[in-house]
Amino acid sequence: MKIAIVGAGIVGVTTAWELACDGHEVQVFDRRSAAAEASSFANAGVVAPGYVTPWAAPGMQRKVLQSLLSGHGAIKLRWPLAGQHLRWIQQWRRACRLENYLANRARLQRLAFYSRSRLHDIVAQRELAYERSDGYLVLLRDRREQKLVRPGLDVLREAGAVFREIDADEARRLEPALSTHTSLLGAIHLPEDEVGNCRQFALLLKREAEALGVQFFFDSHIAPLSPAEPRSLRLAAGSDAVPYDAVIVCAGVESPALLRPLGLQLPVVPVYGYSITATIREPLNAPRSAIMDERFKVAISRLGLRVRVAGSAELGGDAATQHPAAVQTLYKVLHDWFPGAAQLDSGVQHWKGARPMLPDGPPLIGASGVPGVWLNLGHGSSGWALSCGSARVLADLVAGRAPEIDLEGLGLERFQGR
Ligand SMILES: Cc1cc2nc3c(=O)[nH]c(=O)nc-3n(C[C@H](O)[C@H](O)[C@H](O)COP(=O)(O)OP(=O)(O)OC[C@H]3O[C@@H](n4cnc5c(N)ncnc54)[C@H](O)[C@@H]3O)c2cc1C
């Protein structure tokens, strides 16, 4: 088949690769000038399937309120908040109910574990060398956090994740540069989880896909799909319609705009986060792999010769406005745990990115209801961790094959009639 993909983020690139492996003729279009320039550009890079859980969970409404009231709180509302945000919040609140949370968590984790094994297969098969490290350490500063993570440990156990509760001494043996000036009660260690440079992986896999014949077209802003010819693409600036056998929408936060003319109202909203990335000054003072500060919900990742600090969740506002308090929290947490690790006086990369969030958690993968138009979008806070599995599943569906995992609850049907 001749297939067009809109979006060359991590989801579009992995999808292109899988479709090319199946022998399709694939063309990928992106409005940016290179792959992985939008949400996939500078995320935390964590691949921890047991921690891939919905943000819509029982008790979250109280946590959100507490966070809104706290200076270093991870979650913030920003103006303007539009009608789509208010509708999203309503759906999110419904998804917080226990039975909905449990179902969505199972769906997400099934996909996340599958995705990690697909990632490993691709890396081994293509011998891809990118910045990555093994192990994930969730730091608990005090007893309050230890208590708060308890239900999460049951989740990890049920998911079959390999983990150990360790004391501060052992955590410091695993991450010897952790500052002794910040109090540490203990940690959760997940040795099978990992951190990797999502953008670098996307660029490497793009090259592999090109070797299989995939064509990438950048600076190509695609117009919303037309109900008369949904499988044809046009440039937003105006061009002839180019027909395809199938069109796959992997356009992250911009997917709803592309699909609206087809009558699809998708509740994907951007939930913004920040990262800072700096060169390591002294490797002995830097993290070895990825850590998560459970109190501030900030991840610190080792990416080759650099360290990246990522966190914060803003609903509303816009992509361009950087809120200094959110960035200061990243610097604070880095300083708390790894003072002196990074060169912070110059050359620090500041990034604000958007998580393409659906209100209930799992992404949307599969048919759109319009023949030949397919969806692979809405991967929220875990698009890198979910990308390789989502791509394989989508390619199987396009081929009319049964995917290797159960897709219940990952399709569009869950939003229809709402
Ligand atoms: C602070 C932060 C930390 C994160 N940490 C992690 C983490 O540790 N682990 C993890 O798994 N995930 C993490 N994420 C989430 C992850 O980054 C996203 O889920 C993922 O990047 C989404 O990928 P995507 O391909 O769907 O979207 P994108 O990367 O945004 O790709 C979509 C592409 O579509 C293009 N596009 C859109 N509309 C059009 C159009 N009309 N025409 C042409 N092109 C178009 C865009 O230009 C873009 O390149 C984090 C996110 C943030 C913000």
Plain-language structure description:
The chain is α/β, with parallel strands linked by helices and 418 residues long. Strands 3, 4, 5, 6, 7, 12, 13, 14, 15 and 16 form a ten-stranded mixed β-sheet that branches. It has a six-stranded mixed β-sheet with strand order 8-2-1-11-18-17. α1 packs parallel to α10 and α4 packs across α10. The longest helix is centred in the first third of the chain and has 29 residues. The mean pLDDT is 95. The protein binds flavin-adenine dinucleotide. The site of flavin-adenine dinucleotide (FAD) has 43 residues, from α1, β12, β16 and α10.
SSE order? EHEEHEHHEHEHEHEEEEHEEEEHEEEH
- The number of E-state strands comes to 18
- Fraction of residues in helices? 25-40%
Helix-strand category: alpha/beta
Using only C-alpha atoms, the radius of gyration works out to 21 Å
Question: What does the largest sheet look like?
Answer: 10 strands, mixed
Give the end-to-end Cα distance, rounded to a whole number of Å. 34 Å
What is the percentage of strand-forming residues?
Answer: 15-25%
Q: Residue ranges: pLDDT <50 for 5 or more in a row?
A: none
Count the DSSP helices.
Answer: 10
Ligand inventory reads: flavin-adenine dinucleotide
